[in-house]
């Protein structure tokens, strides 16, 4: 069974070991951690993907550095081999997980193709610590599951979900009505396989196959005007959110959204992104294990490189102008893409705090 409490292992000696100036180890955890979100009052939520066979889990990291399953055990107890396990009320394949501008903790469960109720967007109320928003994505997604991450419109009425099966999903959170757009278009499809530490990531179709992933990273500008998005292999595009929102009730526009997209910036094969209050996007480069900064004008630079930034994924920015970097330990090859650790979450100083419409 699932452990309720798993104590995070902390080795204080490593704290002084940071090689790259400014890069500090904030936490050293027992399990590989894909994402971190920190609430305005300091609560920390982690998504942990510590194996490719067990379902990822969500935990809250408590002040004594122990972790507790969040929002509860039941949501984190999915077992594909157990017919009594309910995929519609438990996390099947969490990928995106983050606090939204409304203060909820939102979990994107990509689910499993063919498993009814497994693909969903789950909203957890931090006051009651219970799920109070639940949107099933079956009717919106394509033939294959692919829901991967989520961002919100300025008024928090619309959720934008990336779909690594080459599309964007747009969801009216008031009604639950959603559409799937940009399907198999130039801007939603990968132009190359995913890259890692100098080479392509092998695929699951035998020797010589490669791993591909479509529309993955998304960000909304702090003024709510643009949605930035890219396939996992990089190449950042943007589109004005007014077209996305209007497409919810305009099928002709929905079918032609590609006409309103523009190439925005050159970016590399990416683990995750985040955006600051000034509109700078931080991109974790899985190829050179570095962090890129993309300005609102579309200029890119590498601000940080460190071999321990091993597949940095869902980053976070706090009001004290720190970028939080979980090194998720995704490592192609070997036994199921995971490295043995160490499972660090780093911080790095930046010039701005969080975007007001992105972080609670
Ligand atoms: C938790 O970990 C942090 C970071 O390593 C450390 O600063 C803090 O002292 C730890 N807290 C406890 C209660 O051990
Ligand atoms: C999952 O369910 C199967 C079948 O009931 C059971 O044998 C297995 O122990 C369960 N796994 C876990 C981790 O509980
Ligand atoms: C399963 O699929 C059916 C048909 O689409 C739908 O009516 C039902 O609500 C789904 N169940 C869950 C739990 O999503
Ligand atoms: C969370 O629940 C509390 C108590 O029911 C409620 O007051 C609050 O509005 C909820 N939060 C959100 C974001 O809806
Ligand atoms: C998109 O392309 C993929 C791969 O070529 C294909 O399997 C899928 O059916 C296409 N989807 C649509 C909606 O055309
Ligand atoms: C990256 O690849 C080089 C050799 O090509 C290897 O020495 C190094 O350990 C690798 N780094 C990581 C973090 O996998
Ligand atoms: C979402 O649905 C509500 C309720 O029908 C509607 O008032 C609102 O205009 C919709 N938003 C968008 C962006 O379509």
Automatic annotation (TrEMBL):
Keywords: Secreted, Signal
One matching Pfam family: MRJP
Gene Ontology, cellular component aspect: extracellular region
Main location: secreted
Signal peptide: 1-16
Location within or outside the cell: Secreted
Keyword check for tRNA processing: no
Family according to the record: Belongs to the major royal jelly protein family.
PANTHER family linked to this entry: PROTEIN YELLOW-LIKE PROTEIN, PROTEIN YELLOW-RELATED
Protein name: Major royal jelly protein
Species this protein is from: Penicillium malachiteum
């Amino acid at each position: 069974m699932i452990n309720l409490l798993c104590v995070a292992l902390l080795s204080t000696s490593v704290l002084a070991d940071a090689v790259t100036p400014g890069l500090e180890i904030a936490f050293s955890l027992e399990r590989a951690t894909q994402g971190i979100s920190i609430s305005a009052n300091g609560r920390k939520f982690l998504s942990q993907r510590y194996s490719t066979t067990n379902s990822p889990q969500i935990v809250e990291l408590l002040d004594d550095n122990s972790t507790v399953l969040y929002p509860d055990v039941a949501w984190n107890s999915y077992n594909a081999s157990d017919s009594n396990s309910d995929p519609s009320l438990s996390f099947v394949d969490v990928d995106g997980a983050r606090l939204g501008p409304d203060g909820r903790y939102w979990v994107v469960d990509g689910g499993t193709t063919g498993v009814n109720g497994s693909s969903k967007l789950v909203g957890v109320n931090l006051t009651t610590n219970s799920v109070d928003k639940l949107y099933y994505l079956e009717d919106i997604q394509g033939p294959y599951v692919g829901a991967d991450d989520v961002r919100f419109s300025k008024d928090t009425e619309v959720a934008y979900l990336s779909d690594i099966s080459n599309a964007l999903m747009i969801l009216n959170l008031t009604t639950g009505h959603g559409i799937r757009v940009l399907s198999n278009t130039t801007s939603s499809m990968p132009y190359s396989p995913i890259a890692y530490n100098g080479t392509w990531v092998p695929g699951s179709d035998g020797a010589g196959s490669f791993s591909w992933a479509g529309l993955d990273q998304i960000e909304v500008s702090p003024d709510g005007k643009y949605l930035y998005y890219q396939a996992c292999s990089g190449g950042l595009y943007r589109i004005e959110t007014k077209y996305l929102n209007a497409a919810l009730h305009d099928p002709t526009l929905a079918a032609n959204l590609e006409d309103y997209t523009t190439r925005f910036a050159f970016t590399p094969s990416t683990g995750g992104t985040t955006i600051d209050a000034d509109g700078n996007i931080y991109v974790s480069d899985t190829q050179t294990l570095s962090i890129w900064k993309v300005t609102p004008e579309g200029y890119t630079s590498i601000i940080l490189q460190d071999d321990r930034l091993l597949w940095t994924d869902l980053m976070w920015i706090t009001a004290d102008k720190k970028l939080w970097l979980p090194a998720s330990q995704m490592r192609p090859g070997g036994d199921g893409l995971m490295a043995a650790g160490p499972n660090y979450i780093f911080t790095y100083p930046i010039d701005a705090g969080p975007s007001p419409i992105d972080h609670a």
